[in-house]
């Protein structure tokens, strides 16, 4: 087991909290950060809106049905990026080992810290206080010996909470944890584990590494390690995003001609996620998985990168039209992604500035 001290900082309902901070009339009210429209998805929801079941990445029309009193605010990513940079400056006062995951969360390795604080917990307390004092925003923090445990911990007492997992507490903490809390265990893997009567991490530990590798391949090894609290992945500063995608598995296999609505929704999710990036994605990728588990991909790098959600939707649907297959072929999964991220070139008039499309 590594001797690292990792802090995961997660800003609370970040976009919505910035809006409520900057407009006092929004405080205490259900705020949904999203464009209105059938193809728009929720970027963020205040905790007042979450009480009605509104969640990020949910279709905006569904959020409106769940919370008719919600106040919809168009996202202002230029402002959110500016606030995010301010939080990073606070992080840098404590360590140079910072791995941003998005505008609103980051891992910090504080095994050695700049301020001489004796424990990682003290560092987390100091960071949260500075964020509140300087930015009037709250952040939750998780402290643990590795990244995956720190990320789980930061969610444990949200909002505005701090949770610490000491090395001696890992086993007791993990045993009753729902297996779905482990990174990489999504709906499909969760259902496969459910069929094996695996519901908690303690249950998972009953399977040998050989059993897991036979059933889940290379990810089986990772499951075996996570169930024992092992994660040797280091905090990697300034790791550039390689790709962003969203995918979904159908409840029943469908024809290619029936995928348009889901492709549009997934493209919308991918576009919203990409707005957290300062770099520009130049390639659009469509992924399809057939009923017999064959994977088909189509990609396009247009002369001018997509500059709006609608353009991404249109390109993804064009890629679908390039798929040549038997008309009766059915599909079980579809995904839409953006890749080939590059820094914007200010000298190229065809290179869009991300801030122009916020």
UniProtKB/TrEMBL annotation:
It is found in: Cytoplasm. Its cofactor is Mg(2+). It catalyses: DNA(n) + a 2'-deoxyribonucleoside 5'-triphosphate = DNA(n+1) + diphosphate. Its main location: cytoplasm. It is an enzyme of class 2 (transferase). GO terms for molecular function: DNA-directed DNA polymerase activity. Poorly processive, error-prone DNA polymerase involved in untargeted mutagenesis. Copies undamaged DNA at stalled replication forks, which arise in vivo from mismatched or misaligned primer ends. These misaligned primers can be extended by PolIV. Exhibits no 3'-5' exonuclease (proofreading) activity. May be involved in translesional synthesis, in conjunction with the beta clamp from PolIII. The keyword Hydrolase does not apply. Its EC number is 2.7.7.7. CDD domains: PolY_Pol_IV_kappa. The keyword DNA damage applies. Residues 6-186 form the UmuC domain. The record marks 15 as: Substrate discrimination. PANTHER family: DNA POLYMERASE KAPPA, DNA REPAIR POLYMERASE UMUC / TRANSFERASE FAMILY MEMBER. This is DNA polymerase IV. The gene is dinB. Keywords: Cytoplasm, DNA damage, DNA repair, DNA replication, DNA-binding, DNA-directed DNA polymerase, Magnesium, Metal-binding, Mutator protein, Nucleotidyltransferase, Transferase. Binds 2 magnesium ions per subunit. Monomer.
């Amino acid at each position: 087991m590594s001797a690292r001290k990792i802090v995961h900082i997660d800003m609370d309902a970040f976009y919505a909290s910035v809006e409520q901070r900057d407009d006092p009339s929004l405080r205490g009210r259900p705020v949904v950060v999203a464009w209105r429209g059938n193809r728009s998805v929720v970027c963020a929801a205040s905790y007042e809106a979450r009480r009605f079941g509104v969640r990020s990445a949910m279709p905006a029309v569904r959020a409106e049905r769940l919370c008719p009193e919600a106040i919809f605010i168009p996202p202002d990513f230029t402002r959110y990026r500016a606030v995010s940079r301010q939080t990073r400056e606070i992080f840098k006062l404590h360590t140079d080992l910072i791995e941003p995951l998005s505008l609103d969360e980051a891992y910090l390795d504080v095994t050695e810290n700049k301020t001489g604080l004796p424990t990682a917990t003290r560092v987390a307390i100091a960071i949260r206080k500075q964020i509140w004092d300087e930015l009037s925003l709250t952040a939750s923090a998780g402290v643990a010996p590795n990244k995956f445990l720190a990320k789980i911990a930061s969610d444990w007492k949200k909002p505005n909470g701090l949770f610490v997992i000491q090395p001696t507490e890992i086993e007791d903490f993990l045993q009753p944890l729902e297996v779905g809390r482990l990174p990489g265990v999504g709906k499909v893997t969760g259902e496969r584990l459910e069929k094996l009567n695996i519901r908690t991490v303690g249950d998972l530990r009953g399977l040998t590494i050989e059993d897991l590798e036979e059933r889940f391949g290379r990810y089986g090894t990772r499951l075996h390690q996570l169930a024992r609290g092992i994660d040797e992945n280091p905090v990697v500063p300034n790791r550039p995003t390689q790709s962003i995608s969203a995918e979904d598995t159908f409840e029943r296999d469908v024809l290619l001609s029936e995928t348009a609505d889901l492709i549009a929704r997934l493209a919308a999710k991918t576009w919203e996620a990409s707005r957290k990036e300062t770099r520009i994605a130049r390639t659009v990728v469509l992924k399809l998985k057939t009923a017999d588990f064959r994977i088909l991909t189509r990609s396009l790098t247009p002369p001018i990168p997509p500059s709006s959600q609608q353009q991404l939707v249109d390109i993804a649907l064009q890629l679908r039209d390039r798929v040549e297959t038997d008309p009766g072929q059915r599909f079980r999964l579809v995904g839409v992604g953006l890749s080939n991220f590059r820094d914007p070139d200010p000298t190229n008039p065809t290179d869009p500035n991300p801030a122009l499309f916020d």
